Amino acid sequence: xxxxxxxxxxxxxxxxxxxxxxxxxxxxxxxxxxxxxxxxxxxxxxxxxxxxxxxxxxxxxxxxxxxxxxxxxxxxxxxxxxxxxxxxxxxxxxxxxxxxxxxxxxxxxxxxxxxxxxxxxxxxxxxxxxxxxxxxxxxxxxxxxxxxxxxxxxxxxxxxxxxxxxxxxxxxxxxxxxxxxxxxxxxxxxxxxxxxxxxxxxxxxxxxxxxxxxxxxxxxxxxxxxxxxxxxxxxxxxxxxxxxxxxxxxxxxxxxxxxxxxxxxxxxxxxxxxxxxxxxxxxxxxxxxxxxxxxxxxxxxxxxxxxxxxxxxxxxxxxxxxxxxxxxxx
Length: 330
Ligand code: PBG
Prior knowledge:
CATH architecture: Alpha-Beta Barrel
Order of helices and strands: HEEEHEHEEEHEHEHHEHEHHEH
CATH topology: TIM Barrel
CATH superfamily: Aldolase class I
Strand order of the largest sheet: 1-4-5-8-9-10-11-12
Organism: Winogradskyella psychrotolerans RS-3
Number of helices: 11
Number of strands: 12
Keywords: Heme biosynthesis, Lyase, Magnesium, Metal-binding, Porphyrin biosynthesis
Helix content: 25-40%
Bound molecules: ligand PBG
InterPro entries: ALAD, ALAD_AS, Aldolase_TIM
Pathway: Porphyrin-containing compound metabolism; protoporphyrin-IX biosynthesis; coproporphyrinogen-III from 5-aminolevulinate: step 1/4
CATH class: Alpha Beta
Subunit structure: Homooctamer.
């Protein structure tokens, strides 16, 4: 008999293909990153991220209502603060009336059911653009983690449901968990960026928040002493196991597409939900290629998010979330 097996029977038409499809994307898969700025009525397109915007608090409230109506129920907040408010210790990050703290409340006011996750890292508040305190050319680990824990507590007090430390300092998940417990925030969760690589795909994000490391003597030009080396795979599992031990409820791999082997490795080793961050550079690459007419935007987008889920992602943080859901919803 030839061929021995006719696998094409299961691909004959869309009905049978959809019947046997292993990975299906739904609005429930997505976490929507949002950038907040001061002001009123602001909807400011980020030049290197076409169709993605910095929003003032009032426009943020409109946006989250729209997301909710599309079935998107979780957001990840980032803020862009004025240069004047930046210092080496991220002092402004702890301001109980700071932009992040007000944004959290505003989202909850506009849309009480919306799950609010907040970015915890010093870079948007650092005059040096680093995720920790800089001293003599070094990013201090323990001192930075202490500030991050206070920052997390301040977000929890403002009403954040989940804290998302994106800095990659050692021990910060434990510091955050302990402080939250001490202060009675037992139910505030932690989504820890556990395998976050020193990637060149973050460029457009740093444009969005004006948070790139500054070019000064004694300030490291990159984040390679804390973010992971992209040649490493086993280390990602090690990082993840430690973060879970320290109290992470959700772990994260970042960026997405180039790191799907890592997602699968971690998926095979741990039993907590895994988030994957499809980062700004991944978004911008597709937008640029589509603008040139070189790639079919929607088709490639759906292929990418499906691949991320197929690799083992339980949660996808993506700037494409709205576009994807509009396609799913028809
Ligand atoms: C920094 C942070 C970065 C991103 C999320 N949090 C950039 C960086 O590490 O420099 C990148 C997200 C993206 O590129 O979409 N704490």
